[in-house]
Structure formats: structure tokens, C-alpha cells
């Protein structure tokens, strides 16, 4: 079965550019397409070692490029990324066969791109340049600029689309937030947070905006642009954050074990504090059905699942590494717990049974993000490494592991 799965992956990427491909994507290319790399995994009670294949993406197979940023389309069919050696180029690949379908370049950015966001409801993409003041909305399929958003006067560092696709929020290094109308490019609102912005999250109905700035979280009403509340923590306690898929609640935790709190996502009002004899730290995450929150125990190889309404502990995951990232599959079938160096452990989220694990990569590889695609089977891993080193974006398929159990 191991050989069968490997051959299936090899056939999937043994692609040819067809006439329909060229009709839809005239700039498609095999030159910088995704390519297969080995994936060593351990499955079963005897921890059998198996070798499968992952799909990897970089600016080229030969340059030692570090991924600066990436974005997945809402339907999980496309991956966009920018690299530190690719000037201001943005590469767009089709998943899962890895065909490079578009390269966006030479239309506004003067430096490598540092932030990317796909529109939730169409083939458009927002990009931010690293040291320029440019915000660009792209038509990905045509490979052209739809709009330049003009108004920032320093480097733009963060961006987010509203979930209805009508708005884009951006923040620059002078701590200025702006909200834009994507249909016209008009700036609807501008305000100063007096803190550097690291994360922007729209509510499910696009009526609220959560902003992580410095060590604080701000909640704004998008219609009136009024500040609703501020979540304040001690200065030495940065906050981790997760919003339920239902959009009704958020859960926050700190890096120093000073409490995990569930709040109303509309008002910011505290609903529940999760207590345990162990110190609970970020990362924190809601299950897709909102019924539980998963929390890491400080300094241990352990994660705890709690009932999100009562705070009662439901389950303990005993791991082989200290987890630094958590991700549930969208359908709630799986949960992946990832270590700082890229170790992955996958469990059935309902039965709590172990599915499989893979070890980390190199000593200088640091896992930045692990996320499931909408198919609930494929995991995207994003690593960073020391300057000048190379580590591609990687896609692995959980179903390959399940079939080998």
C-alpha cells in the first residue's frame, strides 16, 4: 500500500499543461511548479516508519529562498506565496497538482511582499510590500492590478479581508489602521491605535473587527468605527487568540500561563475562565463545532481539551513533543499538534485515537504555521529558517496515513 500511495502522488504531479489550462491560465508554467519531497511518518502501535511523499513549493528548486508570506484561497484550490529572493514576485499555484498558474510582478511593489490575503468570494488577492507603502488588490486569473489602495505613509505590515469580501483592513508601521471599500478602493476610515498591529480578524458577519496590537486586543464596530472594548493584559503577557467557526465567541490565552478566557465575540464580555491545576498557555483553539477548546500545558508535552461551555476537562493528549501549534480539520475529524521544529502528531478528534506522526526537520527550521485545507485531509506547513537557508512550503495528506494504519 505504501508504494501504491507514493505512485498516486507521483502521477498527480506528473502533469502536462493542457489546452484548457492555457485557455484559463495563459501564464501557467512547469518551471516553478510544486515538486515531491520525502515524508517520513510513524504509524500504528509499533510506530512503524513509512516513507510517503509531500508536495513542496518554493520560488525555484535551485535558489535558497525563504518564504516571506503565503495565503490559501477560501476554497483551498490555490496557494499564493512570496519569497525573499524573488524581488516582489508573487507565485500562485493550483492545488493539489502544484501547477504554477500565475506570477504577479512588476506592477507596484518595489520590495519583497510581506503579507498576502485572498478574497473569500473571488479570485482576488491583497498584497503588501515589505518596505514600500503600497497595498495592491490583484485579479489573480488575469494577472493584473485591480486597484492600488493609496493612503499609507509608512510600511504596511498587516491586512485582512472581511468575510463578505467587501472590505479590506490594513495597518502600517506608524500604528495607523485603515478600512477600505474593495469595490472602489476608497478609504472608509482611518485611526491610530498607538500600538503596532500584528493580527487583524473580521467577525463572521463582517460587522466586528478584532485587532491584536502590541499586547492588547481591540474590538471595533465596522459600521460606526467605534471602539467597543480593549482586552488588557500584563505587559509581559502577550496573548494568543482563536475565534469559533460560529463567530460567536473568542478564546484567549497567554504565553505565561495566566489564564484561558472565553469571551463574547460581539461585545468582548467574559463568559468563562478555564481553570486547571496545570498552567494553561497559548496556543488555544476552538473545535469546529465550538463544543470544546484545546489548550497547551506550559512546559510539558501535553494538551488538554475542555468543554467550552462549562470549562470541564474532556481529554488529555500525551505527546512526544511540546506543542506550539494546534489545528482542527474543518469537518472536526482530525486535530494536529505541531512542535516548534516541525514535529507533527495527528489524532482522530472524536475518538481521540492516534493516527500518526512525523518528526521535525533541521535544527534551524522553525515552524511558523500549520493549517488544514478545506478538504479536511491536507495540511499546509510553513517553516522559516536562518537567513540564506531553504525550506519550502509543504503539503501532506492525512488520508495517506489513515490508509496505512
Automatic annotation (TrEMBL):
The keyword Phosphoprotein is annotated on this UniProt entry? no
Q: Which GO terms describe its biological process?
A: protein polyubiquitination
Alphabetized InterPro entries for the sequence: WD40/YVTN_repeat-like_dom_sf, WD40_repeat_CS, WD40_repeat_dom_sf, WD40_rpt, WSB_SOCS-box_domain
In the record for this protein, the WD repeats are positioned at 106-148, 149-190
Keyword set, alphabetical order: Repeat, Ubl conjugation pathway, WD repeat
Q: Name it.
A: Uncharacterized protein
